[in-house]
Design brief:
The chain is an alpha+beta fold. It is built from five helices and seven strands, in the order H-H-E-E-E-H-H-E-E-E-H-E.
Length: about 150
């Protein structure tokens, strides 16, 4: 799992039955933190940890990406009302580290469907990242992006 992560997140990511013993064996090599709910989170000492106020860049994730599925508590990244997207095979767009839209590719165009209202700056950043994805998917011959309207 991506750290800092709780032992339950590690278990959700790997499914190992002997995980508590494995965590105990390496605990001395890890650093521990507490989340807002008081749960212990573990991480590697030298792992990068940006300041909590640092905005996360827009990211287009493929279906079944570990960023969503690698946590027992998925509320860190996806709202409960959209949780089913992570197991239904939807491709999602992260805006400031949260699932905020889905995306598809149709006839060379990356189409984005917002799940919530996006600010003008967020829409611009989604469109820029979407153009880069469209260019990558078309070997640089296209950069078509369509960002739909937010739900009411």
């Amino acid at each position: 799992a991506f750290g800092p992560a709780a032992s339950a997140d590690l278990r959700a990511w790997c499914g190992l039955a002997g995980l508590p013993a494995a965590v105990t064996a390496v605990r001395g090599e890890l650093v521990a933190f507490r989340d807002e709910r008081g749960r212990e989170l573990l991480d590697l000492p030298e792992a990068p940890r940006p300041d909590p106020g640092t905005p996360a860049p827009v990211r287009f994730l493929p279906a079944f990406d570990n960023v969503i599925l690698g946590y027992q508590d998925r509320s860190r990244i996806i709202d409960d009302e959209h949780r089913g997207l992570s197991v239904a095979g939807a491709r999602v767009v992260l805006v400031d580290g949260r699932v905020s839209a889905t995306w598809t590719v149709e006839e060379g165009t990356v189409s984005v469907t917002p799940l919530r209202r996006l600010s003008r700056a967020d829409r611009t950043e989604v469109a820029e990242e979407g153009r880069a994805l469209a260019a990558f998917l078309s070997d640089g011959d296209g950069d078509r992006i369509r960002v739909g309207a937010a739900p009411p």
